[in-house]
Design brief:
Blueprint: E1 4-7, H1 13-22, E2 27-30, H2 34-44, E3 47-48, E4 60-63, H3 68-76, E5 91-94, H4 100-111, E6 116-119, E7 122-123, H5 125-131, E8 134-140, H6 143-154, E9 157-164, H7 168-197, H8 201-209, H9 216-220, H10 222-227, H11 237-253, H12 259-275, H13 283-290
Parallel strand pairs: 1-2, 1-4, 2-3, 4-5, 5-6, 8-9
Antiparallel strand pairs: 6-8, 7-8
Helix pairs in contact: 1-5, 7-11, 7-12, 11-12
Active site: 173
Protein name: NAD(P)-dependent oxidoreductase
Domain 3-hydroxyisobutyrate dehydrogenase-like NAD-binding: 167-286
Length: 292
Amino acid sequence: MSQVGFIGLGNMGAPMLGNLTGSGVRTLALDLDRERMAMVAGETGAARARSAADFAEVEAIVTMLPTSEAVSSALFDWDDGIVGHLRPGAVVIDMSSADPTQTVRLGERLRARGLNMVDAPVSGAVAKATAGTLAVMMGADNEAAAEKAVPIVETMSATIFRTGALGTGHAMKALNNFVAGAATTAACEALIAGERFGLAPETMVEILNASTGQSFVTSNVLNEHVVRRNFASGFGLALYAKDVRIARSLTRAIHHPAPVCEAVSDTFDAALAELGNVDHTRAYEYWAEQRS
């Protein structure tokens, strides 16, 4: 592949770009934070995009941005519009955590311009983004586009799950994060209750991890970031709340009653309204105070 564009150089995007560039792929990086773009490009060896016209030679673009709106804006609104410079048949690989219904609409807009889209959101947080071992959920309507995307995505991942049509990857990511969010809220609620009854939080986590209450949250988050009060998981509360909100929107769009999803989303939104975009593990402090 002659060149791959990469838009979005945040906590996840920067190491993902590093793995893509480190695999030998020639990359063109863009972030609206010019200082960050210069720093990440220098660290990874990627070229820096100075105008939308710079994307004329790329065969694929990876987007790793916070929302569906940000993805659309980056493609259509930056400079004079990146999509207007892409060659016919170019593939947009959206690895963001986005709204699946908006992904379907964006795919239609791109298809009208002779472009293809694949949604390929990721799971594994910053550690796996750095190691290049992310799990990827890939949806696509066009098999040729998916085939073009796979070797690019493989440089950043350990596993690629083909989920079905365009938008199903983003749907699966939102539902996954709802399940993880439910585990987070339940685990924190249990810790708060247990501590107030006299249980040591370290003992609680040890028992949870040896029992049926074990989850990714109990094994990888509670001790390091909640019990020890480090609160530095690298995943912001605003993004977590957004992902669960997407899952709630999805269940509403298909008229599927989902009371647990509604409750988890409300719980995250309340913490976000009070704390702002802190590390998501700090929600524990708010929940503990709220339940006092």
